[in-house]
Amino acid sequence: SLRNLLDMDTFSKSDPVVVLFVQVSGSSEWKEFGRTEVIDNTLNPDFVRKFVLDYYFEEKQNLRFDVALFGAQDFLGQAFVALGEVIGSQRGRLERPLTGVPGKRCGTILLLAEELSNCRDIVTMQLCANKLDKKDFFGKSDPFLVFYRSNEDGTFTICHKTEVVKNTLNPVWQPFTIPVRALCNGDYDRTVKIDVYDWDRDGSHDFIGEFATSYRELSRAQSQFTVYEVLNPRKKCKKKKYVNSGTVTLLSFSVESEFTFVDYIRGGTQLNFTVAIDFTASNGLPSQPTSLHYASPYQLSAYALALKAVGEIIQDYDSDKLFPAYGFGAKVPPDGKISHQFPLNNNVENPSCAGIEGVLESYLQSLRTVQLYGPTNFAPVINQVAGIAAQVTDGSQYHVLLIITDGVISDMLQTKEAIVTASSLPMSIIIVGVGPAEFEAMEELDGDEVRLSSRGRYAERDIVQFVPFRDYVDDSGNQVLSMARLAKDVLAEIPEQLLSYMKTRDIKPHRADPE
């Protein structure tokens, strides 16, 4: 919607149209994505045409809205916004002033984002069977069910197998869950075919019979038992008196919605971003060009790049834009004590910096005042953020800690213990390794291959994502591209990690109130 547009028409009000441009990732190029319809003779249009965009939390998706008069070349203003800002704003609604016409107030643009429901329901059902055909020579049958969904072209794709119930003609199978998408691709009337087999050890399972149904028919079992006849077409042809090969009864059927990351963000969950930067001596003297902390007038240091890449995306989901920022491994003035969690802004009471620019400023200021030292201890700052995360566990706050380091970790045992404890809290940890060091220890913390454990306790969730910065540096020196690549990889797991926390705590998103 647009409000209070500039009036350019002499004889009537304006006939506005909005053109959406999308910025090509890692470049300054804009591509036209689409246009709204034209609404005649109004300065406050509400457009009907929607733009359907693919949304990626881990990417900075810059959008530009140009407002123009239809038929004329008159430009009425424009607005720049990141898709994440719209989704991260309250109830997915964002209002921005239009700019671009010198000396004139151009009015405002109202943007509303909603997620297209992609059939996120999950079904739980339980079945039993009665008087199935006996297939085994010495005992009864060992029955199991195979579910198939039908495809557009009439073929069938297997989508579920039950367990085998041994030696019975009247099996009761365990309840199982399956996404509606897998069962019928979201089409409630599409055929679902179910085959009944007798299990044989050698894999040549005997076919007992089959029946067909649909999601819509299955869902009626929420109010009554549904009984299906199991038929064997070959037997039916051969025997005149054939009735069936038994029956299958649907005992229960329930549906639950699977919530998405966007559901929680729209419901008001805030992402809180904290930064911890490595100030150990192995980084090299910041004034020397060989130092990992060295920033030339033309180029940011690897630390600053990593911080900007991740921070600029996360800040869209944090309403106050205040970010606590710490350093570790330095001797800190006035008394030169070694600290592993000193505030970069030198304010112990309030370590928060205003925006990512504020964090960068405080980081550069600290480089001038502290003495790089050691060792490289992660546990203090992880425990610090975990302590804050533990204060609010109702799903309204989720914490992301970014640790940027040049290498070998000195307190591995304490760090593992800290991460295992933090894994039950609403937080995720991103570790970016800068410089040429070997980072084997970090891979262990990442826990993708083997779940992290400490003193016999296993991490409840995988909450750590580690990447070496050197893997993302663009050969041509394009820093924007390097940052986009890095952010994409380190942030990709955050939505899943947030969802896994909410799921294990059975926290449902707050419903956004309709307008």
TrEMBL record:
<feature type="domain" description="VWFA">
    <location>
        <begin position="272"/>
        <end position="473"/>
    </location>
</feature>
<comment type="similarity">
    <text>Belongs to the copine family.</text>
</comment>
<dbReference type="InterPro" id="IPR037768">
    <property type="entry name" value="C2B_Copine"/>
</dbReference>
<dbReference type="GO" id="GO:0005886">
    <property type="term" value="C:plasma membrane"/>
</dbReference>
<keyword id="KW-0677">Repeat</keyword>
<dbReference type="InterPro" id="IPR035892">
    <property type="entry name" value="C2_domain_sf"/>
</dbReference>
<keyword id="KW-0106">Calcium</keyword>
<dbReference type="GO" id="GO:0005544">
    <property type="term" value="F:calcium-dependent phospholipid binding"/>
</dbReference>
<dbReference type="InterPro" id="IPR010734">
    <property type="entry name" value="Copine_C"/>
</dbReference>
<dbReference type="Pfam" id="PF07002">
    <property type="entry name" value="Copine"/>
</dbReference>
<dbReference type="InterPro" id="IPR002035">
    <property type="entry name" value="VWF_A"/>
</dbReference>
<keyword id="KW-0479">Metal-binding</keyword>
<dbReference type="Pfam" id="PF00168">
    <property type="entry name" value="C2"/>
</dbReference>
<feature type="domain" description="C2">
    <location>
        <begin position="90"/>
        <end position="228"/>
    </location>
</feature>
<dbReference type="InterPro" id="IPR000008">
    <property type="entry name" value="C2_dom"/>
</dbReference>
<dbReference type="GO" id="GO:0046872">
    <property type="term" value="F:metal ion binding"/>
</dbReference>
<dbReference type="GO" id="GO:0071277">
    <property type="term" value="P:cellular response to calcium ion"/>
</dbReference>
<dbReference type="InterPro" id="IPR045052">
    <property type="entry name" value="Copine"/>
</dbReference>
<dbReference type="InterPro" id="IPR036465">
    <property type="entry name" value="vWFA_dom_sf"/>
</dbReference>
<protein>
    <submittedName>
        <fullName>CPNE9 protein</fullName>
    </submittedName>
</protein>
